[in-house]
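Ticket reopened. Same input as before:
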Amino acid sequence: MGTIVNDRAASVPAASVDKPPPAGLRAREAVSGVMPALALFAGVIVVWEAVARVFNVPQFVLPPPTAIVHVLLAHQRDLGYAAWVTAQEIVWGFLLSGLIGAGVALVIARFTTFGRALYPLVVLFQNVPKVALAPLFILWFGFDLAPKVVLIVVIAFFPVAINMLAGLTTVDANLVALMRSVGASRNVILWRIQLPNSLPYLMAGLKVAITLAVIGAIVGEFAGAQAGLGYMIQFASTQMQTALVFAALVEVSVLGMLFYYAIEWIERRYIDWMPHTA
Amino acid sequence: MAVPDIAANAPAHIVARGVCVDFTVRGRTTRVLNGVNLSVPKGGFVSLIGPSGCGKSTLLKVLAGLLPPTAGDVSVAGVPPIEAVRQRRIGVVFQEATLLPWKNAHDNVALLMQVAHAGRGADEIRQRAADMLRLVGLERAADKRPAQLSGGMRQRVSIARALALDPEVLMMDEPFGALDAITREEMSDFLLEIWERTKKTIVFVTHAIDEAAFLSGEVIVMASNPARIIEALPIGLAYPRSEESYAAPEFARATARLRRLLKEGHRQALAA
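Engineering reply: fixed in the latest deploy. New output:
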């Protein structure tokens, strides 16, 4: 988690945020920014296709990209439904992780004595291999949405809590002293200084949480499910339908990317005082 | 221009007697300030100068009511600093501007007022913040965020924020320490102008000899090991001061004396 916090600290020099470049220039920069990634991606796909064909690799071992695309199109309704199920798990799990993580951080920062008691327990809990809890959650909460959401929360709330806590506590001590000197209560300081200060850190935590939420949803479905992309991957692999496994993987990745960039967009849109590193 | 006369017989505004401060870190107690006495006249400009670690910032924190002394008495306008702070008699400016990065200059200036004068109307606070920004020459940067301002401008916002509560005393802890040389001199001119207009009592911590001599009516020289005051040197140079003041014989005399005192203190500290 430390690296996430440090990322935000490694700020772009202030001068560069003064004036955004004109829109046309920005668009051109964006295109030239993604070109290398696209080129590399295309290269990998071409090599993959070539290897699969030239060496005549069996489809159940490594299907060529064209076969995966074919399955993606042929099964788009099944895949779409599975993605819908998994997306709901991810969204609910992520939202609850965010709320609980932020809540834990706020409690620890605001009620210091209780926080001193809570913090070690949170860290202890973080060191439980939580993926191993998935079967328990299935046992307790059934095969539907609930066990996946719970699993996601226990996996993903921690980076939210720890990042937000860093943001709540790294406020300027002199400024806090000034606020106190004019009679500001702890609640006023929390609300006016600590909370806004923690938002960029919260966003960093949420970006980690969303990727963990995707993992949590898939693992939760592996442990026991009747629908979803993880369920589909498991089902397809037992049937040796490897192309379908890859097709589901493609959908999972696309889902994860969409969620991640949605959060990044919110961050850029609403938390614009932190210089962006990307 | 009316020149504030800071003769020694002006009534004392800030008085410290036998001030000691101990810091305890991991069970070990260190004496950071030992038996400090000082007196600052009302409307005076007094600097605290000394090497790093001589306790000058600690002394300022004690005078500003941000740190209770371990022993000794301090009074600001006749009351203990904590009480003076409560009565909004003290404004503080730190080395870093300590502005909120998500608020613009205007809102940063208004911040302490909004807490301190919760009862007053938003319009009144807005008006006062605008007035303060005009006073520090930043009326056109009101809607700029700290990241869009230069270091000197940020410090002006910080000064405006302190002045907004209309304190009698301005405590400044190396406020220009992070600025480049040219900006520093500009800010010195600016601060004297503000001081002459507002008639505040100013206590100014610095480690720059020229800055201390140019700004102050009196410079209090501190030394470390043990942290103490070694001399209170009056600067015999009339206000208002300008570029020419740097070339005046009184200025040369004062800076030479300050330099010698600081070097002596440094040598003794090394020998101790």
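The first strand of chain B starts at residue 12 and ends at 25. The first helix of chain B runs from residue 56 to 63. Please confirm and we'll close it.
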